[in-house]
Amino acid sequence: MDLYLALLVGSLIFLSSFLSIRFMISAALIEIVLGAIAGNYLGLYQTEWIQYLGEFGGIVLTFLAGTEVDVLVLKSKLKESLIIGGTSFLMPFIGGFLFVYYVLHWSIQSSEIVGLVLSTTSLAVIYALLVETGLVKSELGKLLMTACFITNLLSVIFLSILFAQINWFTLLFLIVSIFTIVFTPRIIDKMTRSFGFKVVEPELKFLFFVLFALMYLAKLGNNHAILPAFILGLTMTDYFKNINKELETRFRAIAFTMLTPFFFIRGGLNISFSMLGKNIWLVLGIFFVKIITKTAGVLPFAVRYVPKEAMYTTLLMSTGLTFGIIFSQYGLSIGAIDKEQFSILVTTEILSAVMPTLIAQKFFEPKHVYKSIEEKESVKKTIYEAGKEDV
Prior knowledge:
mainly alpha
């Protein structure tokens, strides 16, 4: 039976990548949908190994999200990032909590999970879109990335605070997390300088060991490794960018080939189509709460700092996916939400990943920014060609 399940999951992973390339849709979205189909109709269920690989895939994904943040850009746009990113977190968190607690009469814990899920912004969606359009090179793109980082960092911090269950292992987890964040980049750098670029990849194996250790200690301390993994990714940015870009490439290849697909497929396995069919209005209601509260928090400040791209910025900051699903999985694992509520939240996050992005691209695409980027690239090319002629 396990061999059948492994074959089925392997086929879903391959099919997701094929469909993603064919239809230009995020592989994560397809993996969730195929996981739900397989769970509802093909007999796929969560074994211990699927559950563990899914949990580890979520930690790896969180680490990679941290590596996407450019620290220099964050410093240069700290004020705007803090304000836009902060309100992007705060308004949906409060609005989501109040809506499900007072209108839907969910429990306090489940309402907190909903608030956290709605507060997140999809770094994966924004980053992919910025790279695809070339906006990643623009001031707008840099602001979007750093504001998204602030939003998700606050979400992760609040998750750790609200659901912390302290014991003696919690203190050990905290101490090890601090040492890991401070010393891992130095250890990795020293390994690279001592061993060179070896085929056995000691740096890569050490990174996986560190993430395994954080995950294990977090479990002992009744906590979650999301926050230290996220910050560790941030501290590794400089190493990946300036010292060993190839290590990041290989890490990503392993993560997106065999680890993160288990996380998203596992998420799909927890979606019940029958439960979802009965709760479609709840999905739409929670989705609109996210859009309305994100708009209320982001738009006024986007108008101030990026007036020409205010609506585009607001819509992209309203997207959700990775962290929302991670938080939903965590809520389900500790019993804060049930399977029906999980299905509602994951579907809401999928909607928020797709709809705001499509509307932003269709009606609010910042074409003047594209023109500015093209002009800068043209000037750079002209200077480069002139330099070649002088030589």
